[in-house]
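User: Quick sanity check before I run a bigger batch. Here is a single chain. Can you write out its predicted 3D structure?
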Amino acid sequence: MNSWVTDIMLSKENIKDMVRAGRCRWKIENECFNTLKNQGYDIEHNDGHGEENLSYNMYLLTFMHLMGVARLLTDVLAN
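Assistant: Done. Predicted structure follows.
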């Protein structure tokens, strides 16, 4: 069983959409971290070395990943 935290009031009318949105967000986050860990960025699990430091680390890694994607896209479009 999965669970998510939200400040949106859940109802019979919106529960399916909220579950779908939660699963989509989880998938995006999971794929992003999987790429950062296993596709050359060598990120490892942060064992609680400070929320601020972790935030800076993730900003930099995400920026590096975006630069890598931009370079790959540039190379593909050039050929």
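DSSP finds two helices and no strands in the chain.

User: Great, the batch can go ahead then.
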